[in-house]
UniProtKB/TrEMBL annotation:
Pfam families: RVT_3. It comes from Fagus sylvatica (Beechnut). InterPro entries: RNase_H-like, RNase_H-like_dom_plant, RNaseH-like_sf, RNaseH_domain, RNaseH_sf. Gene3D superfamilies: Ribonuclease H-like superfamily/Ribonuclease H. PROSITE patterns: RNASE_H_1 (PS50879). This is RNase H type-1 domain-containing protein. Residues 137-267 form the RNase H type-1 domain.
Length: 301
């Protein structure tokens, strides 16, 4: 899967998986090599556990790949699709950065799934390819971070929260950053969160931030702002410390707990405070963040 261009990978795929490694049904054989038997035993576990992290959407099937929720979208809708619509990649349903053209879709997607799609940051011109990862379950942790600058060149703070796959609090923090911009505060908060995750021995980490500018900056190949290049490089380097990691944009409404911790950082006299358990002032926001509840938000066109 990772080295698909290697001779060994091409040989296995052409012999055992002519329709691709994600094909639901492998050909049945009465006899076969140990390689075939191993593939047959592990295939169903592999197919159900793997999912896509979407960056530019060029390699991910809109209908048949697992990239949002816990099921392919085709299993959630009923009715025929035209050959063109059936072949849609995720990028084919994009208008611009994270702006979706649902008018291209003839079948009704469930409202909760549609909202989940809207929260995914995708840019069809992004130079970073889509990639497969193992499902966010046991062994995976979620880091949410936020930075706050009062005036967007003003007194700033940062904060974040780490939860396990069940939504349980693992760690949190607030930091007084000083006098700087929102983006600088966002990056410093992220750096603190990544360092905390490393200290906790976390290997698999999904990062969510509500600053699209910061996410795009980290995902870009180069950093055009010389004043940010050092901390951007630090964050990229720290992300590489994990066995598996991903970074995505989320809406502010889904980042309430980190937002409160960041704002608290603006008021702190100490540079950095770690919270091994959830402090009282974030409990309500934490409950909402880890729930399946929804809320309305206004998005400028």
């Amino acid at each position: 899967m990772e080295g698909s261009d290697s001779l060994w990978a091409k040989t296995l795929v052409s012999k055992y998986c002519p329709n691709g490694i994600m094909d639901e049904k492998l050909e049945t054989r009465r006899s076969g090599s140990n390689n075939w038997k191993g593939l047959k035993i592990g295939h169903e576990v592999f197919r159900k556990g793997i999912q896509w992290v979407v960056n530019n959407g060029h390699d991910v099937s809109f209908w048949y790949d697992l990239w949002v929720g816990d099921k392919p979208l085709r299993s959630l809708v009923h009715g025929p699709l035209s050959p063109l619509e059936d072949s849609f990649q995720v990028c084919d349903v994009m208008e611009s950065v994270s702006m979706w053209e649902f008018s291209k879709i003839s079948l009704d997607i469930p409202p909760t799934t549609r909202e989940a799609i809207k929260a995914i940051s995708v840019c069809s011109t992004r130079p970073i390819a889509d990639r497969r990862v193992w499902d966010l379950s046991g062994g995976w942790f979620k880091l949410n971070t936020d930075g706050s600058s009062l005036g967007n060149l003003g007194l700033a703070g940062g904060g974040g929260i780490i939860c396990n796959h069940l939504g349980d609090w693992v760690g949190g923090y607030s930091r007084a950053i000083g006098y700087t911009t929102n983006v600088q505060a966002e990056l410093r908060a992220l750096k603190d969160g990544l360092m905390l995750a490393i200290d906790l021995g976390i290997l698999n980490l999904e990062v969510g931030m509500d600053s699209l500018v910061t996410v795009e900056l980290l995902n870009s190949i180069t950093t055009h702002n010389a004043f940010l290049s050092s901390i951007v490089t630090d964050c990229r380097y720290l992300m590489e410390s994990f066995k598996h990691s991903s970074l995505k944009h989320i809406f502010r409404e889904a980042n309430g707990c980190a937002d409160l911790l960041a704002k608290a950082g603006c008021d702190k006299l100490l540079d950095f405070i770690s919270f091994p358990t959830a402090p009282a002032h974030v409990l309500e926001a934490l409950a909402f963040d880890v729930s399946n509840d929804t809320c309305l938000c206004l998005i400028s066109s």
